[in-house]
Each structure stands twice: as structure tokens, then as C-alpha cells.
Amino acid sequence: MQLDVNxxxxxxxxxxxxxxxxxxxxxxxxxxxxxxxxxxGNLLTGFLSADNGRIELDGHCxxxxxxxxxxxxxxxxxxxxxxxxHLFPHLDVRRNLLYGQRRTPTKRRTLDLxxxxxxxxxxxxxxxxxxxxxxxxKQRVALGRALLACPDLLILxxxxxALDRRLKxxxxxxxxxxxxxxxxxxxxxxxxxxxxxxxxxxxxxFGGGRLQVLTDAESLALERLxxxxxxxxxxxxxxxxxxxxxxxxxxxxxxxxxLKVQEKPESGYFALSSKDILLFRKxxxxxxxxxxxxxxxxxxxxxxxGVAVKxxxxxxxxxxxxxxxxxxxxxxxxxRTIYLAIKASAFRRLM
Amino acid sequence: xxxxxxxxxxxxxxxxxxxxVATLIALPLGFLLAWVLVFSRLRGxxxxxxxxxxxxxxxxxxxxxxxxxxxxxxxxxxRWLDRLGIELIxxxxxxxxxxxxxxxxxxxxxxRLGMEQIDPQLVxxxxxxxxxxxxxxxxxxxxxxxxxxxxxxxLTFARSLGEFGATILLAGNxxxxxxxxPLAIYxxxxxxxxxxxxxxLCLVSIVISYLMLMxxxxxxxxxxxxxxx
Lengths: 351, 229
Known about the structure:
The complex is a heterodimer.
Chain A: E1 2-11, E2 14-23, E3 26-30, H1 37-45, E4 52-57, E5 60-64, E6 69-70, E7 78-81, H2 93-101, H3 113-119, H4 135-148, E8 153-157, H5 165-182, E9 186-190, H6 193-199, E10 202-207, E11 210-215, H7 217-223, E12 233-244, E13 247-252, E14 255-260, E15 268-273, E16 277-280, E17 291-303, E18 306-313, E19 316-322, H8 324-329, E20 337-342, E21 348-349
Parallel strand pairs in A: 3-9, 3-10, 7-8, 8-9
Antiparallel strand pairs in A: 1-2, 1-4, 4-5, 5-6, 10-11, 12-13, 12-15, 13-14, 15-21, 16-20, 17-18, 17-20, 18-19
Chain B: H1 6-39, H2 45-57, H3 60-71, H4 76-83, H5 92-116, H6 120-128, H7 133-144, H8 146-162, H9 165-170, H10 181-189, H11 195-228
Helix pairs in contact in B: 1-5, 1-8, 2-5, 5-8, 6-7, 8-11, 10-11
């Protein structure tokens, strides 16, 4: 997907300006509330008209103030999954799912109901009234409804922010899996850096109504080192679980990590806070933490709160955070090999 | 003596016909006006709103008189209708017009209340899924305000059934032709010994109104139930 945007819009005291060209399938739109994220969404769908500028999607002009082109929302082929599912309450799940597909020209219908319903695990819900669905189910149906319209661009507008953390963790895998599988390019609008890191490759960072920078979620996370009370969250891809006593052993590259048994022993992404990693200069003797692995310091990043230590653990990267005094005492320098201790309970499944 | 005389029966039949036709005309008209008031970006909405609601606050006789001025042979619209050979005044159609104008504010108010409950984001969702403005109006807005349409229809029908002031000015009180139940009762009350006839028609009015209210409740209940599915 290729999206070219050059827009100006004044809304009362708020002014919005964005000029970018982005190519890719998984694009994030990141920023705090009031930063212009939603305005961008509304300008792309056509519910707002810019004062000046142009929008081109895959070479197809959606809006051009000079040529007075302004396609109506139904002609733009830009579907939206909203924060609240906004399912049609008078239609059952099946007819909700088919609403967009029925309005899509036959030759453009590349997805079929059964495949999408199966991927989102909503097949048993098809005949139900949407009023009987849980929050997570509603959001999955909303995603299915948008996918089946086979849009040129899907805007996911804070799709998870109305859900609690447990539900979020349940839905992210569905989002990731189905968006990859059905290859619908999307803009993921959110103020959550964690979601950006899991679901996007590039990020349009908005602030004060302006596009600040086109970057990626990892760089944004690194920029925020020391600002987040929970520390930097490492995302670890763990696989091949096996039972090790009362714990589960997962493969992490060439390392093995022991985790406290969580709901099901399945491969996936896990979160580990930089503040949950203890560093030792030498191999410690007996230790309550169940994971002790060697790592080589590759970079030291000093920030206001302390020092972030970038580590290479046999080919896998990890970031730990320590206070300055500890960094001095450990004599941390790039190239030095140290030991990392991590508790088995410090990991949290992301997807 | 029969419970209802032949002219009474004609009055009952005419009342039912006038109220039904007036309701059927006011439904789409009310729906469109409510849509304009709720969803469109039209300027001067307040003005339109005031105009629609005027019959609610004005005495029906005033409405009837104004309509007579407009639709009469020398009226602004009447002159034009006369040239086309259409005669409205003192026919049952005039009674329908009076009932539509008097009932419209109730219809628009009911539908508007229903429409304002609809989350605009639902319409947005439909539009981004490829529905044109009209498509979204008929596949999202209309079904979602169905209960409001039922309520608006019931109120307009009831109001039409009882319409007196505007009807008598515009359609007259011609037994068998434009005499509806309220006009017939009025006639009975003016003649000695007319009490039994008036009472019989009162009874018929009560039965029709009550059946209609029940029907309204049943319909709304069914709609609620199918929504919860």
C-alpha cells in the first residue's frame, strides 16, 4: 500500500498539518489524545474535508482541493474498526459481517465469510444477536466486518482501548494473525506503544496536530527510556515449551528461559521489564531467581533516571536498566560479559 | 333500533379511512423531516423545526382556517389546484390534509427522539463499508427507528381520529361524505334525544383507540424481543 498525504485542516483553535508518503502494510499512527491522530483518520475516511491538500491511496486520488475532488466515504474503500465495535444492533452477527461485502463489487471480494469467521473464531456466533456478545467478541466481529469489505486501507482506530488488559492480550493475536493472513494494509491508530510494537512496522508519530516524524515503534520505545515507570518492556519471542520440574522451559534463541506455568504452554511473545533484570559482574552462587544467563554489554545509554544496558545474550538482544551507581560499581563497558538473573515470574504473555 | 345508524357507520368508516391515510402520508414525510432535523447540516434547522411544531401550539381552528385560505379556490395553492381540476375543500381528502398537518408535529417528534438515540458512528460505520447516504438511511437509520415510527404512527392515528377543529373548517360536516366520528358526536349533542347515538359513537371511539394502543404495545414488545434475539 502506498499512501501519499499532504493536508491542512483548521478546526476552531486546533490546526492539523501532515505531509508524508508511506509504503507498507502495517503502519502505526501514534500520539497522545489531541495530537491529530483521529483527525487524520477522519480526513482519510472522508468524514472531514481538509482545507487544502491531497490524499492519494495506491495512486488513486481520494481528495484534491485544487481539482475539487472529494470522494464520499462510501467510494473511498477505506474501512474503519472503531474503538467501540459499533455493530448494527438490528442485524445478527452474520448479517453484520456481510454488510460491507454485499456492497463490494463481486470481482473485488477476495475474502469469504467462512475463512474470516474461522480465523477470528466467531463461526459459532454467526446466528447470534450482536447484543449477546462480549466486548472481545464484538470487536472480533467488527474486525471481520471490515475485512470482508476488502478495503484498500483499513483504519484501526484505537480498537483495543475500550477493553481491559486481559481482553487486549486475548485479541492482539487475532488481530495480528488475521491482518497478516488476509493481507489488508492498515493504519493502526493508538496511544499505546506496546500495541505499536506488536502490530506495526512503521509509525507516523503525531503531536500537537502535526506529524512529528516517520519512525518505527522500537525507536520510539528507546526514545522513551527512563520515562516510563514500568521501565522498557523487552519483547521476547519464546518457543518450544517443555516441563522443567514445576516450571516451563522455553527456548529463546540459543538460551533456555524458565517461566512460571501460565495458562497454556504455547510459543509466543512475552513481555519482560528492563527493571526485572538483575545484573552480576561474576557468576553468583546460589540464587532464588530461576534464570541466570551470560550476556555481553553492547551499548550503554545514559538517561535521566539511570543507565540502560543493551545486552547480547548469545545473539538475542535485551535491555536492562540500572541506577548510575550500580553501573559504576559493575564497571559496565561495551564488550564486557556479565550475568543476568531473571525471576521465573517476571514474564507476561503478550501474544 | 340498531346500535349504529347507517350514517354513524359511514362516520366510523370515514374516520378510520382518514386516520389511516393521514398516518400513511405522515410516516414518510415525518421520517424525512426528522432526518433533516437530526442528521443533515442544513442551515435554518430551528426555523424548520418551529414551522413543523406550530400546529401543536396553535388552536386547530386557526390551522384549519389558514389551510382553507391556502387551499380554497382563491388561495395560493387552491387557485393552482383549481386549474388542474383538483378539488380538495369539503371532500374527505381535505380531512386527510387537516389530519396530516395537525399530526405531523407528533410524528416528527417521536421519530426524532428515536433517531437521536442512534449513534452517528453507526451511520459512519455503514458509510465506510460502502453504503451511500441513502443506503445507510434505509438499512441502518430506518430499521433502528422502527419503534419510534410505530409510536409516531400511533400518536398521529389517534390525533387524526379525534381531529375536529381543522377538519370542520376545511372539510365541512357533511354526513356520509366528510362527517367523521367527532363531527357526528357534535351533531348528536345538538339535537334533542341524540344522547344514545353520541354514546354509541363514544363507545366505538374508545374501542378503536384502545385496540390501537394495545397493538402499539404488542408491536413494540415484539421489536424489543427480536432485537435481543
